[in-house]
Write a structure and sequence with these properties.
It contains 20 helices and 39 strands. With 848 residues, it is an alpha+beta fold. Among the domains are: 110 residues, 2-Layer Sandwich (Beta-Lactamase), CATH 3.30.450.20; 167 residues, Heat Shock Protein 90, CATH 3.30.565.10; 112 residues, Response regulator (Rossmann fold), CATH 3.40.50.2300. The strands form 10 sheets. The chain has a 6-stranded antiparallel β-sheet. Helix 12 runs antiparallel to helix 13.
């Protein structure tokens, strides 16, 4: 009869009166809570000598022995759960010497008592068999080894011809993963059985009643008589051991040639993991103690499987944690997740096997291994945005879920998508290639369905010959542990992405802060320079007698500042050499060599002090060149740079051989710079003495303005002539000269300077396009070319000029940095601001 209570769907196809039938080797008595007999199997009459119908509604005390009733009541009191089945072995049930093995359970409002004749010589099976079996089994390693050892142990205990371990797949189908069989018996190992061989309702019953036995498929079943006759509600025998099974299952076993069978459920985490399926090719009865020992071994084995699977899961999780640590270490090294993506894919592959991996993060596509092309993946990414919804999504048959995948260049079937952003957008996607494989079925898996009087009904399998099915379009499935690891990996990747995002945000914020500081510093410096130039303009005007003299003095002072700033730029606004600064100033104004002797070390001065010192030395040198020792050929200057106490700098200036010197009647702006700049701006000291032999000056610069002192040999500075390009009269300019400059004021000044030097036709262009047009339209013979023209540079113009053989001079405010461009590598460069002499010398060199 059917294996399920009448409330289950599959009972609808069976006549209602068959629900109560049991196997004939035992009998059943159901008692109401008042201990009145309400149901009884017909074969109980053989035991008590009465008709079955006559036993109904009798008090239990008239049928069962008083000691037996007491024992039954006590055992019911010991039930652990409402679904528990209690057992009493060797009970004298009817008050005579006969002993029975009894099982008790509750069914609705009835107490169901099942009894079988006791087998006295099988007492103590746990100690003699189950415990050693469990000890031998648990020494196995993997789950597969456990199953193989357990199958052998159980066959040795029960004597069945074949014992199989049958494992369920998520879709309800099953596979024989281990087998122990007698000689001459065909193997079922590795065969698959479709889900409808054990329907869902039967699997639910296996989950509650852990042991099902059929002693003889040809054994007649015995009907149960109920109080109230055939109209009464049938007794629910879902937890019964003696209850007969479905005729469909009996026919199924007969088609296999099986005469007796035993099924023992293997439960894991409350779910049906698999079965011990035992077959015998002749009738075989197992005693109640034997079946109890088998059931106990099944429960112990389920515990071992759970331990084995949990160990495997822990190892998998440990690998996942190692993956987390590895990815975090890569991040700590400052490397992006997408950097060296192949190594990341290999690391992930140690935890989740895959054939290829794609990273799709912030619109960047990186890949490793066998993956779709970028265009193919972008189409898949749009699909993932709809189905993943921020969660893991996997399939082993991609073309079924996403038909365009059938046209992918690579034969990919398995996809595991791991979202790594809160909103659908960014993914790490693992791919598995199509795995064409042969699945061995125990007969054609497409079991036929026939119409019967009660609707559609499955028919028993008639053939169990091995039947092979070639499966295509599928990959190796993603198992539960891999999905758990993928979830951990997702959390890791989310952490990586968030850390990278936070780091990028911090970097942008820090960059913005630095930019604000730089702008503020630039603004401060520009304002200081503008204020300084304004002071130069105002103060120079009071000392100059004529406008040309005013322009010459003012220009020289501005150029002094420019030279100091050039030096600071070259040193990236770090501390710079004072000797170099003095040399720049001297070479700019003196045309004769050997006139200034430098003694002492080379002070490396902080950038904050260099501008002030540049103006001081500019005034000292220009005053000496105009009025002092350097104004006559025989005049000399000794300049000493000495380290004084505490790391301060002492500067001594001593002129000799010049005209007689007397103190000035009034202090001009230049004298004020010499006397007041260092005390006021640097907190130092300045002393000027107008001795008859020449001006002497002494300056003290505090240590905080001095970075260090470098050793330097005393030497006389070669003040080479700056007039190497010839005088104004000897410079002959071409008829047409072009000025390429985007600033109109600078362009107009250059035009005026060129006019003073004799240029007749001066053309001006503000950008590359205009410059190239003028070059093609006019016979340009010389070009003054600004390097940077707003949003573009003048490289195309320089390249065209080189091709035409037209000479050019570069002008720039970027100093030596212009030489980093290969086009300008050997060009003559004038650094802004440049004077008329600078321009004359530069043009003389390129035209020579």
């Amino acid at each position: 009869m059917n294996a399920e209570p009448v409330t289950l769907d599959n009972c609808a196809s069976e006549p209602i009166h068959l629900i109560g039938r049991i196997q004939s080797f035992g009998f059943l008595i159901a008692l109401s809570p008042q201990w009145i007999i309400t149901h009884v199997s017909r074969n109980v009459a053989e035991e008590v000598g009465r008709e079955a119908e006559a036993l109904l509604e009798l008090p239990a005390a008239e049928v069962l022995a008083e000691d037996a009733i007491h024992a039954l009541r006590a055992r019911l009191q010991m039930r652990g759960t409402p679904q528990s089945v209690e057992r009493i072995f060797g009970l004298k049930l009817f008050g005579d010497d006969r002993r029975f093995d009894v099982a008790l359970h509750i069914s609705g409002r009835d107490v169901v008592l099942e009894a079988e004749p006791a087998v006295a010589d099988e007492a103590g099976l746990y100690e003699t068999h189950v415990r050693p079996m469990a000890e031998r089994t648990k020494r196995a390693g993997s789950t597969e080894e456990l199953c193989a050892v357990a199958a052998r142990q159980l066959r040795g205990l029960t004597g069945f011809d074949r014992v199989m371990v049958y494992r369920f797949s998520p879709d309800g189908s099953g596979e024989v993963v281990a087998e122990s069989r007698g000689s001459g018996i065909d193997t079922f190992l590795g065969l698959h059985f479709p889900a409808n061989d054990i329907p869902a309702q039967a699997r639910r019953l296996y989950s509650t009643n852990l042991l099902r036995i059929i002693t003889d498929v040809d054994d007649p079943t015995v009907e149960i008589v109920t109080r109230g006759g055939s109209d009464a509600a049938p007794l629910d025998l879902g937890m019964s051991t003696l209850r007969a099974v479905s005729p469909i299952h009996i026919e199924y076993l007969r088609n296999m040639g099986v005469a007796a069978s035993l099924s023992v459920s293997i439960m894991r985490d409350g779910q049906l993991w698999g079965l011990f399926a035992c077959h015998h090719y002749a009738p075989l009865r197992l005693s109640y103690p034997m079946r109890t020992a088998v059931e106990l071994f099944g429960e112990l084995f389920a515990y071992m499987v759970d331990q084995s699977e949990n160990t495997r899961a822990r190892e998998q999780r440990a690998r996942a944690r190692q993956l987390h640590d590895t990815l975090m270490a890569r991040l700590a090294e400052g490397r992006s997740l997408l950097t060296d993506f192949g190594r990341v894919s290999e690391t992930v592959g140690e935890v989740i096997a895959h054939d290829g991996m794609v990273g799709w993060i912030d619109g960047q596509f990186v890949s490793s291994g066998e993956v779709p092309a970028k265009a193919e993946f972008l189409e898949l990414a749009g699909f993932l945005d709809r189905v993943a919804a921020g969660n893991l999504w996997s399939t082993e048959n991609l073309s079924q879920d996403f038909p365009p995948a059938a046209n992918f260049a690579a034969p990919l079937a398995g996809v595991l998508a791991i979202p790594v952003s809160r909103a659908p957008r960014d993914y790490i996607v693992l791919f598995r290639s199509e795995l064409s494989r042969s699945v061995r079925w125990a007969g054609n898996p497409e079991k036929s369905v026939k119409l019967g009087p009660n609707g559609p009904r499955l028919t028993p399998r008639e053939s169990f010959a091995e039947w092979q099915q070639v499966v295509t379009g599928r990959s190796q499935p993603w198992d539960e542990e891999e999905m758990l690891c993928a979830e951990q990996l997702r959390a890791t990747l989310m952490e990586v992405i968030l850390r990278l995002t936070d780091a990028a945000h911090r970097e942008r914020r820090e960059h913005g802060r630095r930019q604000e500081i730089l702008i503020a510093e630039l603004n401060h410096r520009v304002r200081n320079i503008l204020n300084l130039i304004r002071s130069l303009v105002n103060q120079t005007g009071s000392a100059a007698a004529t406008i040309p003299e005013y322009a010459d003095v003012l220009g020289s002072r501005i150029y002094a500042l420019a030279r100091a700033h050039d030096q600071l730029t070259r040193s990236h606004w770090r501390a710079s050499s004072l000797r170099e600064l003095i040399g720049l100033e001297a070479r700019a104004y003196l045309g004769e060599a050997g006139r200034i002797t430098l003694e002492g070390s080379d002070p490396i001065v902080e950038a904050t002090a260099l501008t002030t010192l540049s103006l001081v030395f500019h005034e000292l040198i220009t005053n000496s060149a105009k009025y002092g020792a350097l104004s006559v050929p025989e005049g000399q200057v000794v300049l000493r740079l000495l380290r004084s106490e505490g790391g301060a700098l002492r500067i001594e200036w001593q002129e000799s051989g010049g005209p007689a010197v007397s103190p000035p009647v009034r202090r001009g702006f230049g004298s004020a710079i010499i006397e007041l700049s260092i005390p006021h701006e640097l907190g130092g000291k300045a002393e000027i003495t107008y001795a008859s032999m020449g001006v002497e000056a002494s300056f003290s610069i505090p240590a905080q303005h001095i970075h260090r002192f470098d050793d330097f040999q005393d030497r006389t500075m070669p003040m080479g002539s700056v007039d190497a390009g010839g005088d104004r009269a000897s410079l002959e300019l071409p008829e047409h000269v072009l000025v390429v400059e985007d600033n109109i004021l600078i362009a107009m000044e250059a035009e005026a300077l060129l006019g003073d030097l004799g240029a007749r036709n001066i053309h001006i262009a503000a950008n590359v396009q205009d410059a190239l047009a003028l070059i093609e339209a006019q016979p340009i013979g010389l070009v003054l070319l600004d390097v940077n023209l707003g949003s573009e540079n003048s490289v195309p113009v320089a390249e065209r000029l080189r091709a035409m053989g037209v000479p050019f001079v570069l002008s720039t405010g970027y100093g030596d940095a212009v030489g980093q461009n290969e086009t300008f590598a050997d060009a003559l460069v004038l650094t802004k601001p440049y004077s008329s002499d600078d321009l004359r010398i530069g043009l003389g060199k390129v035209l020579a």
